């Protein structure tokens, strides 16, 4: 299933401006630096947290930061390609495409243990009583993916199915729920027989007391996946790009309100800090794209 060709990013809070307004020479785009975020969680949960994060980045950068939460993964990519974003947080697969078509450059990511870039995993799960005992049993059954452009919500589960002899498009009755949260809810409410469930969504559900390990059966789990990068638009002025990269790669998220810290904290992000990241860290995603013969431009 292909994404709609409507890629317009939606500003859920267009009036959220933060940071000190400096001269245009210090901050591009008439002093406004636009920060895009993918819809990896419900907007109701994300908006307060990223509002505060935008303010913190703006204060450290000395620029006004405007927050945009996109309607889809590709909406954020399209916004950067059309010079409507200076930086953004992308999913790993979304980043590979953004690097390819929108000149996005990974400069930072969230820290894991020992100050190293954090990782997470994708999995395929079912629920007791579904009649599914092994991955092979998902053949012909309803299956929830998150978003077609999602790394852990589509690409890795499709890879897992393919490696086990199941056509990830035709061998199952695929449903694109729209987000990891929506996929989880479909599983939790038994609306589908099986589906994707990544470790970040599990951590988020635990924080909201919505996850019972006994309610799910893991059929397959991926190798570690690099966490979402914070990426800057490659054609920004070099001096500003370097300053922005420095800020993004050294954020102390403990400075955010406690509620925000709880949202951002997980098994994959225990340090509540950001660290430098490079484009090369996502080469394994590119390998998967090649293995699955995925044309990123058609996602």
TrEMBL record:
Gene3D superfamilies: Periplasmic binding protein-like II. GO terms for cellular component: ATP-binding cassette (ABC) transporter complex. It holds the Pfam family Phosphonate-bd. Keywords: Signal. Transmembrane segments: none annotated. The keyword Plastid does not apply. Residues 1-23 form the signal peptide. InterPro entries: PhnD. One of its GO terms (biological process) is transmembrane transport. The keyword Signal applies. Belongs to the phosphate/phosphite/phosphonate binding protein family. This is Phosphonate transport system substrate-binding protein. It comes from Paraburkholderia phenazinium.
């Amino acid at each position: 299933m292909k994404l709609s060709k409507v890629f317009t990013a939606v500003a859920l809070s267009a009036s959220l401006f933060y940071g000190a307004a400096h001269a245009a020479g210090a901050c591009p785009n008439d002093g406004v630096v636009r920060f895009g975020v993918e819809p990896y969680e419900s907007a109701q949960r994300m908006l307060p947290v990223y509002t505060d994060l935008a303010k913190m980045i703006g204060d450290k950068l000395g620029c006004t930061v405007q927050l945009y939460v996109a309607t889809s993964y590709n909406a954020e990519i399209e916004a950067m390609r059309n010079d409507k974003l200076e930086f953004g947080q992308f999913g790993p697969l979304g980043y590979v495409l953004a690097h390819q078509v929108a000149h996005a450059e990974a400069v930072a990511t969230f820290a894991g243990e020992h100050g190293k870039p954090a990782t997470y995993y994708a999995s395929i799960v079912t629920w007791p009583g579904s009649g599914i005992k092994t991955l092979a049993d998902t053949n012909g059954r309803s299956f929830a993916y998150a978003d077609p452009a999602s790394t852990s919500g589509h690409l890795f589960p499709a890879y897992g199915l393919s490696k086990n002899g199941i056509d990830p498009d035709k061998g199952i009755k695929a449903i694109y729920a729209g987000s990891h949260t929506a996929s989880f809810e479909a599983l939790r409410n038994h609306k589908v027989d099986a589906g994707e469930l990544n470790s970040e969504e599990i951590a988020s559900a635990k924080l909201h007391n919505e996850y019972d390990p006994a309610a799910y059966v893991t059929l397959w789990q991926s190798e570690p996946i690099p966490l979402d990068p914070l990426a800057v638009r490659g054609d920004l002025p070099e001096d500003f790009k370097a300053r922005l990269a420095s800020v993004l790669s050294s954020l102390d998220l403990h400075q955010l309100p406690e509620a925000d810290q709880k949202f951002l904290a997980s098994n994959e992000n225990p340090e509540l800090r950001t660290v430098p990241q490079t484009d090369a860290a996502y080469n394994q995603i590119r390998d998967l794209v090649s293995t699955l013969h995925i044309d990123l431009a058609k996602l």
